Amino acid sequence: MSKLVVLQPTKQPPISLLSSSLSHFNGTKLCQIQYKRKVYQPKGALHVAASSTKKILIMGGTRFIGVFLSRLLVKEGHQVTLFTRGKAPVTQQLPGESDSDYAEFKSKILHLKGDRMDFDFVKSSLSAEAYDVVYDINGREAAEVEPILDALPNLEQFIYCSSAGVYLKSDMLPHCEIDAVDPKSRHKGKLNTESLLESRDVNWTSVRPVYIYGPLNYNPVEEWFFHRLKASRPIPIPNSGVQITQLGHVKDLATAFIAVLGNEKASKQVFNISGEKYVTFDGLAKACAKAGGFPEPEIVHYNPKEFDFGKKKAFPFRDQHFFASVEKAKHVLGWKPEFGLVEGLTDSYNLDFGRGTFRKEADFSTDDMILGKSFVLQS
């Protein structure tokens, strides 16, 4: 018979400032002090009219975040146009969405077909429409944003989807909006975009999500766990499994985007958006199992340095502590996430993976490398 041998990690990641109760986490208290001192009277903030009917352009909007955001905007009575290349259907009926709700949304959404890298087209097409507000959901580089600003000199608000990945790695967590950023991060294009927005005479707001999950998620976040749970396979987790991270539901992210629209307090401000709870990698595996109605999973810890996975990614999260305070958004915007972690994962499972839909087929090749080294045959 075979015996499972757990590979002990050579080093556990440091946990700085972590107390036995994350609800009394010192870093969060520090973030609260900082935003209370600095946010309510933003320097150079432009006056923003209260949210009324707006002519809104969403850059992107057919894959994930924009699908949920556009529905909320249409329900509020705004005229919404999606700027996409037209390679995917402009609308799709969401799981659980009634035929009548979908028909109403489909009848009201507008579409502008084009490539945002065609800067001349962007300038000509946007200037002809004179949008009031732009939500940039898929922008990655500052060069992609500049033509939009040039085309819309009277733009009321530019709302940008950035990333908490711009923060400089630190032992002092959670990340706050005023923390140091990393100009060399893989999200440096988003950081450069924020700098561009700050340098231009434009009323902007930047939203920095941590890990996003929910129905239609094209990143294998919860889906990675669901595939393994459905196949009754062990869950391979790097190192100790106590690394702490944070997930935010896409529907909560969409409501945060709505909360900054026409909000004077959001003028020229950055907001972290995610769930309120932090979770360990092991805890996330267990939460996914609970959400999908699976037995508690068998978890195998391994040392990633002992394997050569090539270009394949063996685990969907960065192997470190990574989480951010959402206190500023809660107190300044009056926003609060609706979903707890297990509740949100259940929503994702029931409306997506549990119905047999997913973005990527299961690939257990890296799991097999890990488990093959973990299993030692004994006579």
TrEMBL record:
The GO cellular component terms are:
cytosol
Q: Which Pfam families match?
A: Epimerase (PF01370)
Taxonomy of the source species: Eukaryota, Viridiplantae, Streptophyta, Embryophyta, Tracheophyta
By what name is this protein known? Answer: NAD-dependent epimerase/dehydratase domain-containing protein
Which segments does the entry list as coiled coil? none
Name the species this protein comes from.
Gossypium tomentosum (Hawaiian cotton)
Q: Which GO terms describe its biological process?
A: monosaccharide metabolic process
All copies of domain NAD-dependent epimerase/dehydratase, residue ranges:
56-273
Give the Gene Ontology MF terms in alphabetical order: UDP-glucose 4-epimerase activity
Annotated InterPro entries: Epimerase_deHydtase, NAD(P)-bd_dom_sf
